[in-house]
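Lecture notes, part 5. Sequence design as translation. It can be helpful to think of inverse folding as translation between two languages: the language of shapes and the language of residues. The source text, in structure tokens, appears below.
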């Protein structure tokens, strides 16, 4: 019997290579797990009963275009949209034989930190179904943590891969901006969006990154990337790790989160790393405010394409203007509407320089502040999320409280830097995430450090209630 809760993608590949299981048997095992557990978790918006390929199954977040398979971005405005072409990352997965299990739930247009903004209902955390799995990629996180997929693709704008990975207790990588193509991915904020892997462990994460990364002629922001090295070393000798005071002592970080992260930092020292304190004061103080001007401004432009005339929902109206207004009224949820209004205001005549222009200058300052730190350190560490998974509905009525869930993930996203979550332990029976951040194109260093810490921590990725 295939234990989908514990089976890693690497182990699944070994079984396939040895002929101990067939691709169909593996695919069927995950379909059975989805049938058993997804009615409770709601990780998937669409499940594929079959898909081509002879390799490992994979789940893909529903903002990533998949030919012939619905791609809704968690929104009613794209309820019946079926792409006629694959996104580059989906095509690259398909070319390696990976078989699509289905499309995972997401906050609408990837706007949220809990998956509660999905137009199709929230996903739930496999560790405690009364709690959120994080967002916006809560569906991919719940699928991997709940044994409904061996690995998945997510997208990250301000923390949407790392934060759900922290809350659900597995690995998630937001790659360096420009290392993974955004072609065929539903746009939220184009200067921030990045696709990345969600996996049970660091080696799986590294391998999936190697599948999707690299230059794409369809995305002019992409670049060639260094060859991916699957990590094997279990020490951190020679590695310089910085501990930003502001990111480890910020208001709102729960004591249990602090304790688990401090224990992981001490473990890094015992593995041979040189650990020292550093500072990112302006990045932490201004990061969230800067993000919530830049990202909504870009969203207000990107979401202008949903007009009811070309694809997706079309509501009735006496003329084009009324049809457009009715379509957007009916199709967009509260959070996209909120961000569209913020962004449109920030870009409007008379306010552009005061808000959007100033935010871009602050963004440059954030990049420079990180660059200064990386002159002295190879990596920096902090909690990924200030808290463990919170209860469904707990923050849904308070947008500001929800936005602050990304306090620690946003600064590095604004700087275009790679960041990875690994589980650091438990607090009150729920996973705590450790965030590793490096300079541009330092994914291999993240993999090395993450693997060594992962082995030393020995976190059991299977939710306690499912063991």
């Amino acid at each position: 019997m295939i234990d989908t809760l514990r089976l890693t993608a690497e182990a699944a590949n070994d079984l396939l290579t040895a002929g101990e299981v067939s691709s169909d048997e593996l695919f069927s095992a995950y379909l059975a797990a989805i049938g058993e557990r997804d009615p409770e978790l709601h990780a998937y918006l669409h499940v594929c009963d079959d898909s081509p390929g002879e390799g490992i199954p994979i789940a893909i977040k529903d903002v990533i275009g998949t030919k012939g398979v619905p791609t809704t971005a968690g929104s009613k405005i794209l309820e019946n949209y079926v792409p006629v072409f694959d996104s580059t990352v989906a095509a690259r997965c398909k070319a390696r034989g990976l078989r699509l299990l289905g499309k995972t739930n997401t906050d609408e247009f990837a706007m949220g930190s809990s998956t509660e903004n999905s137009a199709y209902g929230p996903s739930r955390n496999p560790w405690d179904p009364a709690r959120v799995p994080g967002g916006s990629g809560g569906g991919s996180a719940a699928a991997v943590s709940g044994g409904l997929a061996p690995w998945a693709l997510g997208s990250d704008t301000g923390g949407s891969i790392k934060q759900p990975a922290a809350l659900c207790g597995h690995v998630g990588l937001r790659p360096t901006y420009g290392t993974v193509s955004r072609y065929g991915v539903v746009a939220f904020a184009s200067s921030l969006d990045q696709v990345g892997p969600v996996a049970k462990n660091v080696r799986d994460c590294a391998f999936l990154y190697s599948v999707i990364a690299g230059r794409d002629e369809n995305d002019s922001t992409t670049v060639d990337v260094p060859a991916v090295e699957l990590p094997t070393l279990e020490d951190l000798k020679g590695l310089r790790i910085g501990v930003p005071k502001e990111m480890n002592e910020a208001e709102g970080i729960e004591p249990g989160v602090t304790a688990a992260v401090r224990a992981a930092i001490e473990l890094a020292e015992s593995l041979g790393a040189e650990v020292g304190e550093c500072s990112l004061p302006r990045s932490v103080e201004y990061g969230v405010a800067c993000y919530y001007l830049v990202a909504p401004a870009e969203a207000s432009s990107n979401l202008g394409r949903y007009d009811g005339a070309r694809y997706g929902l079309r509501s009735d109206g006496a003329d084009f203007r009324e049809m457009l207004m009715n379509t957007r009224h009916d199709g967009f949820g509260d959070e996209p509407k909120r961000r569209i209004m913020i962004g449109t205001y920030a870009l409007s005549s008379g306010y552009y320089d005061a808000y959007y222009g100033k935010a871009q200058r602050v963004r440059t300052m954030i990049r420079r502040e990180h660059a200064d730190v990386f002159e002295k350190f190879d990596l920096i560490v902090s909690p990924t999320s200030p808290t463990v998974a919170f209860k469904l509905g707990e923050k849904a009525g308070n947008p500001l409280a929800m936005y602050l869930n990304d306090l620690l993930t946003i600064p590095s996203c604004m700087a275009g830097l790679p960041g990875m979550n690994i589980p650091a332990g438990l607090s009150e029976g729920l996973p705590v995430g450790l965030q590793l951040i490096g300079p541009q194109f330092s994914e291999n260093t993240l993999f090395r450090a993450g693997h060594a810490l992962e082995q030393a921590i020995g976190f059991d990725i299977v939710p306690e209630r499912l063991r």
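The translated text above is only one of many valid answers, since several sequences can fold into similar shapes. The first helix runs from residue 9 to 18.
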